[in-house]
Amino acid sequence: MASYNLKVNGKEKTVNIDDDTPLLWVLRDELDLVGTKYGCGIGQCGACTVHVDGVAMRSCSVPASSLTDSEITTIEGLSTEKLSPVQEAWKELDVPQCGYCQAGQIMTATSFLKQNPNPDNQDIRNAMHGNICRCASYNRIEKAVALAAKKMS
Fold first, then answer.
1. N-term to C-term CA, the chain
2. What global pTM score does this model have?
3. Other residues' Cβ atoms within 10 Å of the Cβ of residue 59
4. Which of 54, 77, 100 is the last residue before a domain boundary?
5. Structural domain span for residue 116
6. What is the DSSP letter of 116?
7. Interval 58-96: pLDDT, tens
8. How many folded domains does the chain comprise?
9. Backbone φ, ψ for residue 145 (5° rounding)
């Protein structure tokens, strides 16, 4: 075990972890930030998506020890005073069914819209295809991403 300093949601946090501990487990077990979900454990489903330096990343497949110089943002840190435009769109269109994948979906959509603020429907579909929704809310997810893009422009 070693001590690492991480910047999570704008705050410095010190954790004592093994070098290979995935960020997901540090967030959930060490920092009690449970909005980021475990899905597959191999970076394929998107439930564990967070932002690392503003870029969407699967937290289950990156060691937290490699992120000491990075800014990590979880769903809990995405907005502090009011909902983000993506969260507003999700709420307005009543996107979630079970809700399990939604934090990862929102984090992916937010990062995508920062890179492509005026996407077409195919851009949205391509950007979101790596996030699995067991409830098959894909149509509402895509509509919410489009609505969020309009809100952000």
1. 46
2. 0.95
3. 28
4. 77
5. 85-152
6. -
7. 999 999 999 999 999 999 999 988 999 999 999 999 999
8. 2
9. -65, -45
